[in-house]
Amino acid sequence: MADFWAIFFSWQGQQTGVVVYLIVVLINTLLNILSLRRLGNHSQLNTWPAVAVLVPARDEEANIHRCLTSLLAQDYPDFEVWVLDDHSSDRTPAILAKLAAFDTRLHVLYGAPLPPGWLGKPWACQQLAEAVPVEVPLLLFVDADTWHHPAMLKTIVAMLEAEGLDLLSILPRQVTITLAEKLTVPIIPWSLFSHFPLALAQRFRWPAFAAAIGQVMLFRREAYQAMGGHAAVRREVAEDMALARLAARCNLRWRLLPAPDHTFCRMYRSAPAAWEGFGKNLYAVFGRHLTLYLFIWSWLGIVFLGPWLMLTGALLMSWPVSMPLAALAIGLAAAVWLLTAWHLQLSIAVVPLYPAIMLTAFLLAFHSLGQALTHQATWKTRQVS
Questions:
Q1: Alpha-carbon Rg for the chain in angstroms
Q2: Mean per-residue pLDDT, 235-242
Q3: Cα(26)–Cα(97) distance, rounded to whole angstroms?
Q4: In contact, 169 and 213? CB cutoff 8 Å
Q5: CB distance 146 to 265 below 8 Å
Q6: What's the Cα-to-Cα distance from 76 to each of 150, 155, 249, 257, rounded to whole Å?
Q7: What pLDDT score does 370 carry?
Q8: 38-53 mean pLDDT
Q9: Beta-ladder partners of 170
Q10: Which of 1, 195, 200, 361 is the most buried (most CB within 10 A)?
Q11: Which pTM was predicted?
């Protein structure tokens, strides 16, 4: 037992390493903020290419009306919206039929049975892409739980054309209302902007750090087809990240930009939905590399929760811990969260809540691992393991 406490209190020596790590994370966050500015207005194009907006929908009665009406209200001269009802069991088909009756730009498809070897969302997206006339050069995949400013489509297309990109994904403003949402959803944008060297990965097309958000992904059709479309990621739960890495491996030009003024998303409306959603996704984001996954989440626990434990122990039980180093680590972590919340327009509540968010993320990470190893992961009644 004495040896255990000797190792435990050696944290005082490790605290310096934690502080150095957090300084690196803070620098990376600043570089991403400075290099990857929010999606903004761009110069007008002489010719606006046709766009097919593609929306997979399964049991989306709470979201689909707002999503589609915001898409149909886009200030863009040449686009149509294609939505696929993926065997919904709620009112989604009725809502789609009603909307389609009043706007000829909305095309409603009904999904074919799920083939062996496919997961639901890649299969829905593949069917949508195949339904679009071949002369349409741009494919915009949009999740049904998003809604959009009328200038979103013009802005994202202008950015794609101005930068000569093959794939442009934008990160919506994540709308969190309940405490469960505030404790879970922010971990996604925070992790991308704090721990991914996005600016360097985009410049040098590093597959390991390529990232995209499936909530909004704009492809040049020829690039999408050259990659193999969603068929190339048919077994991937985190198909958006897999597509970004595939684009980088194919030497395509990709970019991920925050767009909190142009598009919005409310991912989960309850604690059970967040538990199920992260349960299916989190382990898959790390490529199912068990050793790497365990190391990363153990280290994140040490870095973001350890200083609080050490500081509490020092104050209440006189543990021989460097209180200044622990306090500095807490301050650096809070600074990273503050910068991310400011740049991505997250709820400011995430800053004081960040220890609880990290603890929740830690629990979700091991829940996701358990779901994957036992093949129990599900999403909207479908098994996704």
A1: 22
A2: 90
A3: 49
A4: yes
A5: yes
A6: 8, 10, 32, 21
A7: 85
A8: 84
A9: 257
A10: 361
A11: 0.91
User: When comparing pLDDT for 298 and 42, which is higher?
Assistant: 298
- Give the integer Cα–Cα distance in Å for 315 and 322: 11
Task: Read off φ and ψ for residue 137, nearest 5 degrees.
Answer: -85, -15
Q: What is the mean pLDDT of residues 153-167?
A: 94
Look up residue 297 and give its two tokens. 């989440």
Q: In whole angstroms, what is the distance from residue 227 CA to residue 166 CA?
A: 11
Q: How far apart are CA 208 and CA 349, in angstroms?
A: 31
Question: Which of the residue ranges 73-87, 161-175, 268-282 would you say has the lowest mean pLDDT?
Answer: 268-282
Q: State both tokens at 155.
A: 């802005």
Q: Is the distance from CB of 145 to CB of 67 less than 8 angstroms?
A: yes
What is the token pair recorded at 280? 């299916």
- 258 DSSP β-pair partners: 171
Q: How far apart, in Å, are the Cα atoms of 29 and each of 116, 191, 203, 341, 349?
A: 41, 10, 16, 11, 19
Residues 359-377 as b/e (b if ≥16 CB within 10 A, e otherwise) read ebbbebbebbbebbeeeeb
Q: Is 313 exposed, middle or buried (0-12, 13-18, 19+ CB in 10 A)?
A: middle
Residue 71: helix, strand or coil by DSSP? helix
In sequence order, the β-bridge partners of residue 168 are 218, 255
User: Buried b / exposed e across 119-155, counting CB within 10 Å, b at 16+?
Assistant: bbbbbbbbbbbeebeeebebbbbbbbbbbbbeebbbb
In the predicted structure, residue 212 carries a pLDDT above the cut 70: yes
Question: Which residue carries 């811990």 as its tokens?
Answer: 321
Question: Sign of torsion, CA 220 224 225 226?
Answer: positive
